[in-house]
What does this fold into?
Amino acid sequence: FYHMDLYGSKERFDIFPEELSGRGDRSLEDTRRESALSSEKVQHPQEVGYDLEKEVAELAKMYGLDEDREKELELLGGHMEKVESRWPPACTEKAGSQGSIYSTSKSSSSVKDPSQSTKQQGFSDEASQGENQSKPRADDEAESNIWSREGLSSGGTSDEWNSQVVSEEEEEEAADVFCSTCKIPIRAFDKLFGEHKDHEVAQLSNAVESEKEEIHKNMCKLEEQIAQMENVASHLEEIFITVEENFGRQEQNFEVHYNDAMQVLAQKYEEQLEALGEEKRQKLEALYEQLVSCGKHLDTCKELTDETQELFLENDKAEFMKTLFPPPNNYRLEEFLKREVDLELSTLPDFEERVIDVSEVEQLMNSINDIPAPCAPVINPQAPNAATGTSLRICWGLFSDDTVEYYQLCYKPVNNESHSDGQAEHTLKVKETYYTITDLLPNTQYEFWVSALNASGISPPSERAVYVTAPSPPTIKNKRIQSCENAALVCWESRDINPVDSYTVELSKLTDEENNDFVTESIVGIPNCEVLIHLQPTQKYRICVRAQNLGGSSERSEPVLIHTTGTCFYLNEDTAHPLLAILDDGFTISCDELENPECDLPVYDNSFTRCIAILGSLIPFPGKHYWEVEVEEDTEYRTGVAFENTPRHGHLGANNSSWCMRHIITPSRHKYEFLHSGMTPDIRITIPPRRIGILLDYENCRLSFFNADIAQHLHTFNSHFQHYVHPCFALETPGILRINTGITTPPWTAL
It folds into this structure.
């Protein structure tokens, strides 16, 4: 394959002349003469090869095939070595003269298609044999005639060798892209000019990564299925063992009942057999007696017959009559004849039909499935961290060989009040020795007991066990969060009525590049609803809180973001004067009227009653803390710091527990005072500050005030703060003060 630009180049005319007509009419002598001329021109192939290679290089650069070309040249170098070693002896000399042009042609014609590669190889061979022929070849038949008439030795062997070289080259060429249509790796050259030109392709590395990700997903799915199947298999093994145990118990029970039934049957058999023998004896005795009686009767009959026959044979009539009528003889015969002969059998040969009473056996057989009622189960105590806020997993056991069809699980919430017996009980029918109960209340104790049942009845209930659900997620008090550059004070409240054991605070450090929710630090075992956390400066943290009890851990609370860029505090509403209002943003205070501020006002335990003031939250962090207050030029105010126990019925700065800057307007000027214990230095400020910066330095015992708009230092109190202080703010005329917190300490505050 050659690019179309090659057909318009100078080398094209040298290698492939355009005069295609008349090729078939040339004589054999013309053909040989052209071959001789071409062989002379082949003697100087370097110049032509150089120009052609330069042209191919420009085309490769144009289409981004430099890397493919370099790889092909490397592979080509290996093929040339193979050419030198495998070239037939008869063609060695010609191969040497063709090497330059073959190399140049091959570097510009890397095609993966076997048909195109074979065809191109033929073109390369033809070009090496007839590079500068004056006329082009007409067709493949003339080409084969020229090859044969040029006397190339081992023609068939050469073609076979060319095919082998092409095949080996294709095997060694590396694929660098992936065809998504054919699902095979290919070269980038094939995408531009090959059969994959219209196919969708991707980088081989990207395709590999994509397939690896897909394989990883499939592996994860397989692992999930494996875990599920393992659970099912484990459950089936438990059922299998239970079936075996139940079968053994049933087999033993059946054997016992079978032996009892067989014993009863044997007893019945013996009784009936004995009764039958007794009936037989009675029948035989009766028949024997009747037989004896018959014998006696026969003897009497024979005797009377003989006597009567002797009398009947008497010839003497007188003697006959004498012998016949004497009473003894006549009477005996008459009496015998009058006697009735019992010809009936005294007993029948048939025996009485006897039926064995198997009702008892039937009762025994029916009682084979009658098993005793099971014993009371034993409920397990609650395992740590085995509950959620709305569910509990209950486990129990049966430490006997009793057969159980199902269990009856009962529970009710525990109430310490006297009417706890009135709580509704819930009953569940359970097949296994465990159950997970849902839809429960968080951080609530429940009482559980269980009974076992079978066909014979129900077992006694187990001992009652108390389980507790995990707590509800705490609620962080956003308005009470305080922070500085290296620490934060986080407060929260529990949403449960019952107390919890402890709390856990989870910190996640966030960056600009990624907002991952992974926990970088956890603080466990916090007994109260607040914690002081040490942080790193100029960082952003996401903080969550969990509640802990015996049942487990609650879900995370709603997260809060803390930026450690400066000091943050909130305004304590409990200390605010009744005439002082806090706006919705929580950091703006206002006062609309000042008439009789001491008259008819509600008195609060911790609020200011005389000075219209408010305290901020305590700043419990050592080090430096900076905040700003925006004021209006015509507003009279006081701002500074104060101890927790500063008098609520006095003015700020009028005692030794508060330090403040005061602005008042006189007829002649704006007057600024820096008050502590009612005293102020004589300081004149020419430019009224609109934005006051306050720097509290615990370590150096300083409280400094600045005009933040022009970075001007106004005054500094040098005082040893025995306790942590509160920011304080007051209005002496109707107006507004805006407090800005979380500000990085400006460099110009350094004194």
